[in-house]
Specification:
Immunoglobulin-like; six-stranded mixed sheet; mainly beta
């Protein structure tokens, strides 16, 4: 505080000699280590309980930060030649005090969770981090997050377990003094196909019904009479790690595996090389479609007749252990897969290539690879399955060398070829139910948007040959519009983008491959 008074005396002296000095001060009082931001910019850390901030007069947003605590902010009005005091407290109980016009208080709230603790067959004394919290059964609320040790004593026995509590999480523990162990309890539900009977640890369970499991490791048996798709009996050990819904699916039968092997990769349409005008050719597009330019594709390629379906993508997940995307309760099967990122789509392409003995099309950084596994920027050199380039996608959507110049892929009447806002019923539809375009390709307008290989960038007005934007940016291209969009957004020229990990219920993909 002596420093503050000295500064104020100097400030007053300067004001007397030279006129008013247009500056004020904010004094922050808090625990050491609290970081202070002014209008979003880091200005210093509290040391020895105080931090003095010289600021220009006016309103400023003061934010306190400290690891393990929630950020907290408030605005202060800084007055020239005066000091405003701010007190920042760390999770102390709410107090009552008079605050002057020149003083504000900011409190950083604790990040906490809840712990429920039970014991059988006796009551037990509960210690967490060697602090006595009383006897079971108890619920501890507003418990600080982090790594903790739970110890329980009863009947001359001591049981112990370590655990991690996360923000807003609820953990349940059961101490069994007969078995001599503490187990975590999990409240879960299981989703599984129709016609499948499931038991967990010998107990019959209902689909999507909540139940409590003791511990992480459980034996699940699935029985079904649908011998075409599934094995009659599937036995699996599952590991439960948190309270949530888990998907269960019996093993596929050999007959169905054979069916899937013929189903994958799905039908491909041959697209011969050619030339077209890429971008807004009707004069009614968005700014990202402007700069229409001529594109020369000097190689032939294949592109998926349909968007990749849940059946196809689920087979990839079953084979690799990749997490299955949610279907938003619309159903899976022959609907286009949704909620997949660019990284998910390229992983599927690489898996498909390896399945058919082809070189992978992508490395771990998303670069295109040639037949020798070397990075290339020329899509005509890529042998494996991949996402179409943005130019390939638009050329195919326009009908290739058979193009009739339609605004949508295959028609000027959007309802003939696209599932969009006015006819989709607010969800995806099975692929191939609308009319195809001139090349026999379905759903390139509407149903779901589709990932492309390119990084997103603005168009050039100059003519281009075999374009592919390999210069890394922050987002990748997707095209085609979706069930949620209006007609304008399903035009073949419409563009959009997303980050490598972006997922949405409007976004899927189709595959392509350069003709060898």
């Amino acid at each position: 505080m002596k420093k503050e008074l000295l500064l104020l005396l100097i400030l007053c002296a300067l004001s007397t000699l030279f006129g008013t000095v247009s500056i004020g001060y904010v004094t922050v009082t808090s625990s050491d280590g609290v970081k202070i931001l002014v209008d979003g910019v880091y200005e210093g850390t509290v040391v020895d309980g105080n931090l003095l901030l010289p600021l220009s007069p006016g309103s400023h947003r003061i934010t306190g930060q400290k690891e393990g605590y929630e950020d907290s902010s408030d605005y202060v009005n800084v007055i020239a030649n005066r000091s405003t005091k701010i007190i920042i407290e760390l999770g102390d109980p709410v107090g009552k005090e008079k605050i002057s016009l020149d003083q504000k208080k900011i409190t950083l709230g604790n990040k906490t969770g809840t712990i429920n603790i039970f014991s059988i067959p006796y009551e037990a004394t509960v210690f967490i981090d060697d602090i006595d919290y009383g006897e079971t059964d108890i619920r501890l609320t507003n418990f600080l997050i982090g790594i903790h040790t739970l110890k329980m004593e009863s009947a001359n026995k001591i049981l112990q377990i370590g655990f991690v509590l996360c923000d807003n999480e609820t953990l349940d523990f059961l101490a069994d003094f007969v078995e001599g162990k503490i187990s975590q309890l999990f409240t879960v539900s299981f989703d599984f196909p129709d016609g499948v009977e499931v038991t967990a640890n010998g107990r019959n369970i209902k689909r999507n019904a909540s139940l409590v499991l003791i511990g992480s490791d459980h034996l699940v048996e699935m029985k079904t009479s649908d011998s075409f798709i599934y094995e009659p009996l599937t036995v699996k050990h599952i590991i439960v790690t948190r309270n949530r819904s888990y998907d269960l699916k019996p093993d596929f039968s050999e007959e169905y595996k054979h069916y899937l092997s013929n189903l994958l990769p799905g039908k491909l349409v041959f697209v011969p090389q050619g030339t077209f005008i890429m971008g807004d050719t009707w004069g009614d597009g968005f700014y990202s479609e402007e700069r229409a330019h001529e594109v020369f594709l000097t190689y032939n390629f294949y592109i998926g007749k349909y968007e990749v379906t849940f059946d196809q993508y689920d087979a990839f997940c079953e084979a690799t252990g990749w997490e299955k995307p949610h279907d938003d309760v619309w159903g899976r099967g022959q609907r286009p897969v949704i909620n997949v990122s660019w990284n998910d789509a390229t992983a599927y392409c690489n898996w498909l290539s390896e399945k058919e003995g082809l070189p992978k099309a992508y490395d771990s950084n998303g670069n295109l690879l040639d037949k020798n596994g070397s990075i290339t920027t020329d899509p005509s050199k890529v042998v494996g399955y991949r996402l179409p380039t943005e130019a390939e996608w638009e050329y195919a959507a326009r009908g290739g060398n058979k193009s009739e110049g339609y605004k949508y892929s295959g028609s000027d009447n959007v309802g003939d070829v696209a599932w969009y806002r006015d006819n989709s019923g607010d969800k995806t539809q099975e692929v191939g139910k609308k009319a195809p375009n001139e090349l026999g390709i379905y759903d390139m307008s509407g149903n779901v948007r589709e990932w492309c290989s390119d990084w997103y960038k603005s168009y050039s007005t100059s003519a281009q040959t075999n374009p592919y934007n390999s210069i890394a940016g922050s987002v990748r291209v997707n095209r085609g519009g979706c069930w949620f969009n209006d007609a304008w957004n399903t035009r073949v020229a419409n563009r959009s983008y997303g980050s490598l990990t972006y997922t949405r219920y409007t976004l899927g993909f189709r595959i392509s491959r350069t003709v060898p």
